[in-house]
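in:
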């Protein structure tokens, strides 16, 4: 039972780290935390009100992930692999 609980905690921690990485990648590291939370809480309402907005934002996000993958590939080719770099294309 303890092992399952530890695995759940590890999975939860990993997910939170990944979500935090998204905030950093989006350039929102220094934004007021209350503004960020309010914006995220309001986002589902906005996505439901504006037709096509979900697909538009998804396309922007996919391009962002592709940019990270290309940057990682270029760094790997240059021999400068950073052990702290997260591979956004990695599957859980």
């Amino acid at each position: 039972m303890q092992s399952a609980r530890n695995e759940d905690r590890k999975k939860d921690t990993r997910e939170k780290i990944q979500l935090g990485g998204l905030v950093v990648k989006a350039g929102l590291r220094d934004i007021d935390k209350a503004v960020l939370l309010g914006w995220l809480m309001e986002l589902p309402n906005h996505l439901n009100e504006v037709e096509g907005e979900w697909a538009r934002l998804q396309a922007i996000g996919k391009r962002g992930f592709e940019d990270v993958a290309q940057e990682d590939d270029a760094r790997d080719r240059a021999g400068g692999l950073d052990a702290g770099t997260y591979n956004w294309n990695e599957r859980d």
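note: The helical segments are 2-25, 33-49, 53-77.
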